Amino acid sequence: MSEIKTQLVVLGAGPGGYSAAFRAADLGIDTVLVDARDTLGGVCLNVGCIPSKALLHVAKVIDDAKEMAHHGVVFGEPQIDLDKIRGWKDSVIGQLTKGLAGMSKMRKVQHVQGYGKFTGSNTLEVDGKDGKTKITFDNAIIAAGSEPVSLPFIPQNDPRVIDSTGALELKDVPAKMLVLGGGIIGLEMGTVYKALGSEIDVVEFLDQLVPAADKDIIKVYQKYVKDKFNVMLETKVTAVEAKDDGLYVSFEGKQAPAEPVRYDKVLVAVGRKPNGKLLDADKAGVAVDDRGFIAVDKQMRTNVNHIFAIGDLVGQPMLAHKAVHEGHVAAEVIAGKKHYFDPKCIPSVAYTDPEIAWVGVTEKEAKDKGIAYETATFPWAASGRAIASGRTEGMTKLIFDKDNGRVIGGAMVGINAGEMLGEIGLAVEMGADAEDVALTIHAHPTLNESIGLAAEIFEGSITDLP
Ligand code: FAD
Questions:
Q1: Top EC class per UniProt (predicted)?
Q2: Of the listed 321, 328, 339, 444, which one is catalytic?
């Protein structure tokens, strides 16, 4: 067994882990980064954010080309070459993981490939392709992420049952696919497969898709996709029977079909579970809860003083940008800086078509917490840019503190909503009020003018929409 002694070991090289390792190295800390994968980047780069966006880009081009028929330009039926699409997606992943490897090397962060488990409060054993390595560390950052939740009543070893990783492999385009779970990941993958030619059903146990977002925003999305997806709300899957000719799914609930429905594939997208229980963390004295989450304080410190944890395994929202910021905090605290993680808001985006994006306090949350709030909404049907783009279904909503007019949250649904959300996030973080946003001159004609216009509506300077 080889041995390494280091000031810092980071377990898991996802966005949280590599960001922490790079920041620590930049601050002069001798750092070792451990990951079971051959490449850095974790779930996000290898089987998450990035490959899904590469495929969503393909889907968007297909959908946009079809849409152009309404504007007088008719393209032929798309010829789908799955090998080439897969190759494109893999080249995107390759480019980014190679970049990370270069950045890691430049910073002299040592990458140890293998599965790591704690063997004591200052030791970790890594089992890799090149054998075992014992790592003795002064500090550790646990960044081991999460994995998809599987459902016990669904066949486990049937290749026709896939999770997000299986969906991203893009082995084929099933004629008919069920997306089990109407959250962000399920809808994004549904968008991809629909554009490639699958018929898609979506089943969601709750009464709206993307349950964390406000109902009015989701209503716009649901209306737009009603001809694209067959959505079954307040409905659950009770059984999946694997037969030679397909998977027969039984449903129960408000929109449940009376008879089992046959699908070629079922995509299970019911959430992700943290990997905290798989690390022998108890051997280091680190407390892991029943679900696999590790509790941390605002400095990302676990119950053990020199061991920190970040990313998906410390709690919701399970998002890459949250993990990155937490990683920076943990590294800086280890380097002796008085930093802590206390964002006012963390943006959420579904990169569907149209996109759904929200940040800060939602109306739902404001109601639950008894916050006195007001909203102002700008419908994109009144936006010149949206009309010129043939995409007027969108909507921009700002949420204000009723007492002082500060922006406390906001949401958008529509094309490019995710790109535009940053402005609302900045307003929330900076404590901007409606006047600040309304008086900021937005370029015309842009979709993000709708943010300024929503603020003007709140201000009362627009009483009637143009
Ligand atoms: P992860 O990225 O989960 O990485 C953890 C790493 O630790 C993995 O590489 C794993 O191999 C390694 N590991 C685990 N245990 C061990 C061990 N014992 N030893 C060695 N290595 C170990 N988020 C967004 O913000 N935007 C998006 O658009 C987005 N899209 C997504 C799409 C999909 C399909 C999926 C699945 C997720 C998406 N996410 C998105 C979520 C995002 O990927 C995660 O929030 C993010 O990757 C979490 O980062 P992390 O650093 O906590 O860990």
A1: oxidoreductase
A2: 444
